[in-house]
Amino acid sequence: xxxxxxxxxxxxxxxxxxxxxxxxxxxxxxxxxxxxxxxxxxxxxxxxxxxxxxxxxxxxxxxxxxxxxxxxxxxxxxxxxxxxxxxxxxxxxxxxxxxxxxxxxxxxxxxxxxxxxxxxxxxxxxxxxxxxxxxxxxxxxxxxxxxxxxxxxxxxxxxxxxxxxxxxxxxxxxxxxxxxxxxxxxxxxxxxxxxxxxxxxxxxxxxxxxxxxxxxxxxxxxxxxxxxxxxxxxxxxxxxxxxxxxxxxxxxxxxxxxxxxxxxxxxxxxxxxxxx
Length: 276
Hints:
The structure is a single chain. With 276 residues, this protein is an all-alpha fold. The protein is built from twelve helices and two strands. The radius of gyration is 20 Å and the shape is globular.
């Protein structure tokens, strides 16, 4: 099957959707922070009438991370609390372990109280820890910036370089990262080449239909991004824009096109059949 990349992207922009099937959602390593709060922790917070015993100024870095995590879980929405929490996260950022740093980033993203000021404070810590994150935590940290709508170029470049070097991502992890970069309109040619290699190795065949749709829609945004805007440096991409967009991501687009054609009955609208 020969699939036109441009037609695939155009169709994705119009109305590519997937028929959602109701099914039990099994939590995995990429959903670790979304797991329900343990009953023991919930009861303890209820008994204490508070989820933290003393001020942020007196907390260690792990305690700050655990506090903001719990605040999301019990749905704390006070702007005053989150403003102070964001300052505390920034104050102890360099003292976080990679795991606690990922936890803090997830909490700020989930709370929607992340800010550029906090990102600036986190940047040195994330730059140092980017290649030390567990692969699932790396995907979660990248997603946290998309959820907060925070475009911080140095952080995104560090995270994209770590992501393109990480070989343990499965289809779900790569889809999460790609859609997060698309949300931020951040194109890393190095990461797109990583996706091309993954597609060449049969990665797309292991995607669910929903993941295929998400990847196509994300690529529609990333491939069309201007070379000078949001392009990661130091990953083999051209600084002056001399790299042709069609040269990056082509293998992935063609693999996705074949998958769309093969699974056309689960996609809407029927016009997707014309891509074959």
